[in-house]
Amino acid sequence: MKLTIHHLYADMMNLYGDRGNVIAIKKRAEWRGIAVEVVDVGLGESISPTSSADLFLFGGGQDREQTLLVEDLSGMKGADLRAVVEDGGVVLGVCGGYQLMGHYYETPEGQKLPGIGVFDMYTRPRRGDEARLIGNVLARVRAPEEDGVVHEVAGFENHGGRTELGDDAEPFADVIVGYGNNGRDGTEGARRLNAYGTYLHGSLLPKNPWLTDQLVLGALRRVDDRAELEPLDDSAERDAFASVANRLRKG
Amino acid sequence: MPGVMARRVDPKVLEKLSRRLRRGSVAITGTNGKTTTTRMVSKILHTAGIRAVNNSTGANLVTGVTAALVSDTSLSGRPASEMGLFEVDEASVPRVAEEAQLSLLAVLNLFRDQLDRYGELSYTAKVIASAFPDLPPDGSVVLNADDPLVANLGRGTKNPVFFGVEDPALDTGKLQHIADSKDCPVCGTALSYEAVYFGHVGVYRCPNCSFARPEPAYRATRVRMDGPRGTDFLLTTPGGEHEARIGLPGLYNVYNALAAAAVAIEAGVEAEDVVRGLRAFGGAFGRVERVRVGEKEVFLLLIKNPVGFNEILRTFVASPAERANADRAGHVLIAINDNDADGRDVSWLWDVDFEMLAEAVTPGGAVPRFYVTGIRAEDMAVRLKYAELPVHSVIPDRKEALLAALGATPPGETLYVLPTYTTMLELRQTLSDLGHTHPFWEDK
After folding, report:
1. What is B288-441's CATH superfamily?
2. Cβ–Cβ < 8 Å for B156, B129
3. What are the backbone dihedrals phi and psi of residue B324, each rounded to the nearest 5 degrees, phi first?
4. What is the predicted ipTM?
5. Interchain CB contact of A13 with B (< 8 Å)
6. Boundaries of domain holding A48
7. Which of A202, A237, A242 sits opposite B345 (nearest CB)?
């Protein structure tokens, strides 16, 4: 089987080590003998799902770049991505990418940039008296996952925007340490079918290998519903997770 | 802290003291190389017989600049120096420019390691540009022509002075996976590059609008890397051409030297003194240090961000010359902390191109032996694992790690230590505690 990683706006949105997420998916698939192709989907290029397993990554960018790609996203590409999500396709949106998966993202200048609306949520800019939300995060994922375990995730957040979930949105996780969506209601990210959105950027997947595997497995199962992944030796990843998690729990 | 106190006693103290400097003040800012460039200018001014007052490393906010001037001033209020030479944190540029009445401001580059603190690069650029109106009418801004975001700052000022490298042999042929600013700062179109030297630094133009790399008045051409020993290049100034040499490795130090030359010459120094000063320059405290430990050598190379890390890997670890010199691939200790001074977000490790090492290691060839340490040792180990590079030991304790790596380094060989800022301080202290001190460590 072959896995294709569709990296949306890789050339514009690769900030905060998004590359780490691509590398983690690629390596963990390759270590199991699954061939991986990474396809960069830039401005003006359309999403083209393959006949095999597909995984879509939508990373974080800077405000300037966000404005540029909203127009691109408002056409066919946004509609295609929405269709992928509704059809149960595997999508991971991080930071700026996550924000654009909601109804809209309001810029600090007050401009409302429309998102693709797969999550019932919007993002407003921080007010003058509010700080950027920056720091390490430890969060507990809402539901037990494929493996029956309620997992925790660790990462780093750095965002000015405050995301408010609507009634139809399911949070991805509950914050144990950190700010999450808005620093107020204790939620982190959003989840719908096989689409995940999160503020935890960069080294999210390398340190949380269960999530990487879940994305890969989700993509494979779309082609073969009996697909399984061989276990790997994750001791290095677990050590890295435990090191930061223990430190955060101690405060 | 004297700067804070002095400002409390007299909020206008920096402005008043600055006025008394006969030759005015110059400041150097940018993400990478502020300290090295400032020290280079300092050495050049010293060579030219000009007494300048400097702020010390780590004191590059307005209080640090004030403290430097206060301690340079006699009780009667007269400064001992003729000129102010300051390295200034990007966010502090507007206040320093206004209060210290800068006559010259140099901007080296804008990379992403400040994101933790200031949000975003384009914002940082705006902050720096907001200082330009405070420069006097005859003042000027010295800018890196090869960094699009920095070069673009020239559009907001009357007489920008550009410096840049022109050497097609240095073209890496690819943009590194670091997206700091590959798009036109004017219209947002992806820039097209004729040469990429590192990161987003190179020779570029916008295919859509008129934005292009400006013609530099100060140029480095015919750059010849002489391994860790130094670098030669042809320095072109508005006054002519000069053979220059610096005792530092890496193209990024050529940029620092170019910026230093431009600042010094624009401040009225003769080109001959510039070349002599650069040649005499030994390296800034802590950036590159060699320490002899018995029959072994420790080479400390400070890492600050992905671009700097890539350059160090390319120069020391992956370079065929280096590996040919030593029969063995060598021993490398990587030390990563995530304190404020290091950057709290370690996701930047994923932007470092460790994959180039895996590519550089030929089948059957020697692989460097990696030790990792620091608060984020485990994250570093994961990063190496995913670059398919073997990790020899993960030892979070800095002292234990240094002893282990040193112990494994054979006599006559070099241990390369790649620390972030606060691990560098810790490791240097450890070396000092072990009795291995070195004159280069004097901070002067």
Report:
1. Mur ligase, C-terminal domain (3.90.190.20)
2. yes
3. -70, -35
4. 0.95
5. yes
6. 2-250
7. A202
